[in-house]
Amino acid sequence: MRSPSPRGLARGLAVGALVGATLLDLDVVRDGGYSPWATVAVLAAGLAAVLWPAGRRPAWLTPQLRTGVPALLSLLFTLSAVVLNRDAPFGLGEAVLLLCLLFVAVRNCPPRWAVLCGVLDGGALLATPARYYGGHSDEVYVFSLAGLVLVGVVAGLAAYLRALDYRRTVAVAETRREERLAIAADLHDFVAHHVTGILVQTQMARMMAAGQAPHTSQTAPAPTPTQELDPVLAGIERAATEALASMRRTVGVLRDTGPGPDTEAADRRPVGDLAALTELTEGFASPGQQVTLRRDPAVTDDLPHEVQAAAFRVVQEALTNVRRHAADATEIVVALRCDGNRLEVTVSDDGRGGTQLPAAAHGGGFGLVGLTERVTALGGRLHTGPRAEHGWEVRAVFPTP
User: Fold this and answer.
1) Which residues contact 73 (CB under 8 A, 6 or more apart)?
2) Which of 94, 119, 366, 387 has its CA 20 to 30 A from that of 334?
3) Whole-angstrom distance, CA of residue 56 vs CA of residue 73
4) Are 296 and 336 in contact (CB under 8 A)?
5) pLDDT, tens digit, 9 for 90 and up, residues 344-389
6) CA 46: distance to chain centroid?
7) pTM: predicted TM-score of the whole model, two decimal places
């Protein structure tokens, strides 16, 4: 039986504490002889809003609805108690629920709704003491001051995390844009390669057609023009087909890219292939490390150029991550295998997370985002994760039409 992860254990403890606090509120209501229905409605709405699993929430249960409805119920409960001049209880469970909803509102709601829902949740929390102590007692001011501090701390933390989320979203979008520009550069190289071959073979065909002589040999029959031109024309057809296939498989991911890439930089950008993996792996190993390249004989060099370039990038990024995050690895294995019409590229290491690089050199963590963009653009899949014993594995699978 697997032991729970620290994150899962902490989440379970938090849920248990929250439910326990709400049960304590209900116990106070029962001991005080108060009507339980208003308290039950507020606590039930708050618990549903906080604890409803994210994967099972219906589409209509938006963050603004989740955070606004319990706060409105709490405010109506407080307002009715003040207007009717009746004592009504408030407790720790309701306060914690309103703070959780304030956090969700500030962090997850759309900008305008975040302000409105945050004010509702914070205002509901600050108003709860008025149910029991009245509107102008000293106890109300004490509880309101403490609540104001809690509201400021929770709202500030949520706003900070929201800013971090925004920065990461921008960074991921920029990484994807850069990767798409890189794919555009590769596409330029693929098409240029094929079109150049078409041009050369077309020139050869014209020279052969212009050099045809009307004489015939007496020792052997002279080949007809059609027989001599047929291999050249077949090569032109094959190159054109490969160029169209490269564009069809790659250009779809570039449709929403911004302004065009720097063509001069694209012209100079080198494109890796499977043959370059030997040099890449041989030059990677540090002292005490062994890098092994295992290439299935079925993996040939005539795979589509964009697939070879993507496979090269997968290996390059995986090895870079080993150097950044697992410098203590002693054995690194790069494997290429063909399984039917699929190319599988695997990079695995036996590292335990030791690294000799400073924290500033670890990178922003967006290399895998770019790899995912590149691999999925070709209809492939990328998987990264820990190995069964120890170490890390990066595996990419590409279709090879």
Assistant:
1) 41, 42, 45
2) 366
3) 24
4) yes
5) 999 999 887 765 444 444 454 556 777 787 788 888 999 988 888 7
6) 30
7) 0.54
